[in-house]
Amino acid sequence: MASTRTNPIVNLHFLIVLLLLAICLPFGGGQKKKENLLSEKVEQMMEWSSRRSVIRMNGDKFRRFVKAPPRNYSVIVMFTALQPQRQCSVCRQANEEYQVLANSWRYSSAFSNKLFFTVVDYDEGADVFQQLNMNSAPTFMHFPAKGKPKRADTFDLQRIGFASEQLAKWIADRTDVQIRVFRPPNYSGTIALALLVSLVGGLLYLRRNNLEFIYNKTGWAMAALCVVFAMTSGQMWNHIRGPPYAHKNPQNGQVSYIHGSSQAQFVAESHIILLLNAAITMGMVLLNEAATSKGDVGKRRIICLVGLGLVVFFFSFLLSIFRSKYHGYPYR
Q: Which residues form the signal peptide (predicted)?
């Protein structure tokens, strides 16, 4: 009877193969599980996004779909406080612009699963605010597909404003995703222009036999001053940048109407500057009237003092605002 012998080299090769299989199989299973989890997250985000352009999230959803890996998509999160008891008018204004931007992305031909828009309300995710050490709203943050958010991933709301176009530019810088903003048609401007033209046309028709008022220098001067006041107060900057009307500190509730930086302003600030310029101009007009008129000397003296008081008081107020924004003033 012939004896059989096992080749030791074959046995060694067999053991190595088994060892490699034992090592690789867990990794392969883990990778498959990771891919399945990522697929489920993307599918869920796409489902939510199909229902509404901005996905509402609480603390659990934020930690699972935004913070926790795996994730191959970028997320834009607006941290806000929209409940009426919070009295955050800026939050509502920013939310309107954010909705316009999200809708522009959702219904564009370039829409994909690489970018999602979400919102975390303080009353639904206070733990998220605490986790991120966030003490102001609204705040826009970008959470990249890989790595942690950097400083540039927080939108500079105070300096740039929250207009949809500015947000789209910031997103393009952070994600390379280009979003063309489409705003819903707004006919209020057209209606207002039509009413103005109708009013002017009706006035001219009623006064068709006496059009001397068209040559009234005072009327044209007042119209020119209104345009000058609007432009010098920063109304055009407000129209382009879309800044908030004012800023309310969520910690102490204090409302700021003057922005502390020379690179930005609030809408309320431009209104204050407009009124100050108008008061200073009124003072200069009174001073000129007191110097050129030929009326009673006592009356002219009163007009002069009132005009001088207007110029000194309101110009001092204007200078104090300038000093608060340009901290290096007076320059030496």
A: 1-30
CA 68-71-73 angle, to 5 degrees, is 130
Q: Comparing C-alpha atoms, which of 1, 159, 177, 196 is closest to residue 75?
A: 177
Q: Which position has the token pair 């994909």?
A: 112
Taking only the tens of pLDDT, the chain with its 332 residues reads 444 455 555 566 666 666 665 555 454 456 777 788 888 999 999 999 989 999 999 999 999 999 888 889 999 999 999 888 887 878 888 999 999 999 999 999 889 999 999 999 998 888 999 989 888 888 999 999 888 899 899 998 878 888 899 999 999 999 989 999 988 777 777 898 899 899 988 887 887 787 777 788 888 888 898 889 888 888 888 877 777 788 777 667 788 888 887 777 888 899 999 999 999 999 999 999 888 888 788 888 999 999 999 999 999 999 988 888 887 766 65
3-state secondary structure 151-183: HHHECCHHHHCCCHHHHHHHHHHHHCCCCCCCC
| Domains of the chain, residue spans | 33-175, 211-325
Q: Which CATH architecture has domain 33-175?
A: 3-Layer(aba) Sandwich (3.40)
For residue 181, which of 94, 239, 104 has the smallest C-alpha distance? Answer: 104
Indicate yes or no: pTM above 0.70: no
Taking CA atoms, 117 is separated from 23, 73, 93, 201, in Å, by 41, 11, 17, 48
For the record, the structure tokens of 153 come out as: 């991933």
Beta-bridge mates of residue 116: 75
> How far is 290 from 307, CA to CA, in rounded Å?
9
